Amino acid sequence: MPNKEWEQKTDRARPEPDHDGIDRRGFLKCMAWAGTGAFCVMQGGVLKSYSLSSLGELQKKDVAGELSFVQISDSHMGFNKPANTDVTGTLKAAIEKVNALPTTPEFLLHTGDISHLSKPEEFDTVDQILKGASVKTAFYVPGEHDVLDDDGKQYRERYGKGAKGSGWYSFDKSGVHLIGLVNVMNLKAGGLGTLGREQLEWMEKDVKKLKSSTPIVVFAHIPLWSVYPEWGWGTEDSAQALTYLKKFGSVTVLNGHIHQTMQKVEGNVTFHTASSTAFPQPEPGKAPSPGPMKVPAGQLRSLLGITNVSYVRGRHTLAVVDSKLT
Amino acid sequence: MRIGLRTILLAGSLVIATILLFGYINNTPAAYAQAKQERSTAEVKLDNFSFGPAVTKVSAGTTVTWINRDDIPHTVASTDKAFKSKVMDTDEKFSYTFLKAGTYPYFCSIHPKMTGSVEVQ
To answer: Of A2, A49, A203, A225, which has fewest CB within 10 angstroms of its CB?
Structure first.
C-alpha cells in the first residue's frame, strides 16, 4: 500500500472535483486534519471538501440519509498528564456534541483505547458517560490500552460478548455491512498492528456471501493503511484484509489510534482516522516520538472531536464528517 | 557418663540453635538489602518511545531496571518470553536479574516498534 502520499490541508478548502470523475484508482487527495476546520465528503466519485462553517447546511441537505452513526475514539480514561488533565470533561463534551446533532445517530462506534490502563474503574467511567448519550447502542473494538496485562479478557467480558476470537464481529444496519476488527493483540517485536490468520480467514468467509453492491464499513483501532510505519501507525496484514473487499463498490475504513483526523481514498476504499477525545498526537514525523502533544490552553478542544458518518442509498460512498469539540 | 553425654548433646544443640538464630538475625531485610546492593546493576530509561541505551551490556548476575519516563505506559517484554513486565505507567519500574550469559532481545508489547536488547557476558 502506498504511504506518505498523503498531503496536509492547512487552510479552508473549496469544493474540488475528482481529476477524472470515474476511475478513482490510486487517487489520493483529501486530507482533513483535526482543528483545521476542513472536512471531506465523497459523493458519486466526486470529492468535495468544505470549511466547517458550512457544516450545519451540509448536515441537513447532503449528509442525512438511510443510516447515520457517529464514531468516537481514544478516550484514554485515566490519562492525567499535562496534555489533558481532564479526559472525563472532554469525553463529556464529545457526547454533548453527539447529542446536539440534528438527527440522533443510529449507533455509536468507539474505535478503541477506551481506557488508558485497562483499569475497571476507567471502563466504568466511560460506560457511565456514554449513558448520557442520546444514542443508546454502542459498538466497540479494543485499542492496545484496553487489553493490558490480561490478553484482553476484561475487554471481552465487558464489550466482546458474542464476538469471535479476540473480539471481532460483524453486523448489518440499514443495508450497510459493518465489520469490527481487532489489530492490537499478539504484536511482534519491531512490527505493526496485526490481524492474524484466524481473523483474516473469518473475514474472508464473512464477506463472501454479500452482494458487491453492499456498502461495507470496516472499523479497527490501528489504521489499516500505512499512515507512518516508523511510529507503528499501520497494520502488517491489512493488505490481505483489503483484498477480500475488492469486489465491493463502496468500502469505508474507520480507525483511531493516531489522535488526529486523516483521510485517504484509494480505489474503492475510503480510509479515515478519527480524533481522540482525550489528547492530540503530533503529525507523522513532526516530533521525536508520537507521545501526547501539549498545546496551549484554549487550543486543546479544537484538536479533539467526533466523526459523523452517513450513508445515503444510491450514492457511491459514505459521507464522513469530522467536528471538533469547540 | 549418661548425664555427661546428655550435657554434651544439650550443649551441642544449643550451639546449633545459636548458629541458626544468629543466621536468622543476620538475615534481616537491612542486611539482605546490603548484600543485594553489592550485586551489579544497570538501568534503562524508556523515553520518547525508545529504550536508552538500546543495547545494555552486563555481566551475569546483573539486575537491570527499566524506568518509564514517558507520558504513555509501556512494557518490557522479552522476545523469547524469558521475562515480561506488567504495564508500567509514568515513573514506574521493572527489574530482572540476568543469571545466564546470552543475548536477550526485548520490546514494548504495546508499541512494538520500541526494541532493545541485553547482552549478558
So the answer is: A2
